[in-house]
Amino acid sequence: MTQLAKRPWLLIITHGRFGEELVKSCELVLGKMKDVYCFSLLEGMTPEKLMENVGEVLNNAPEDSLIFTDIFSGTPTNVAAVFAKRHQYTVICGVNLPMLIEAEMNRGDKSTHQLADDLVAAGVGSIINITRITNER
Fold first, then answer.
1. Neighbour-count burial of 33, counting CB atoms closer than 10 A to its CB (0-12 exposed, 13-18 middle, 19+ buried)
2. pTM attached to this predicted model
3. Domains plus CATH for the chain?
4. Cα angle, residue 68 at apex, residues 63 and 69 outer, rounded to 5°
5. Beta bridge partners of 11
6. For the CA atoms of the chain, what is the radius of gyration?
7. How high is the pLDDT of residue 51?
8. Block means of pLDDT (10 residues each) for the chain, length 137 residues?
């Protein structure tokens, strides 16, 4: 099995099409990504339908796959938490572009737990008050 085949999949579950657009932005920076799956909670969609959609992909996903969500306690995160509890997937809430770039560049090179810690650090580290910085100069 090649290194690429061993790389964890990335699943992104968000309100609306935020995740899909985030992946498009990431691909603008890094090029085409493989084994990345987006799930959008759309108006009128039930949590059960979202869970069914995610479950269909997770049935074939490597055990160390990562799930990203947008808002803590939101339906996408609650759905992801069910799969995390059942199958020990790693779920990271608060997905942003720097986190996704970091994930794509490093998945398969580190343990899932180390990668998850690095992704949270990348996400937090990318939130900067530029106005404060420029006003201090």
1. middle
2. 0.91
3. 3-136 (3.40.50.510)
4. 135
5. 37, 67
6. 15
7. 97
8. 66 98 98 97 97 95 94 97 92 97 94 94 95 91
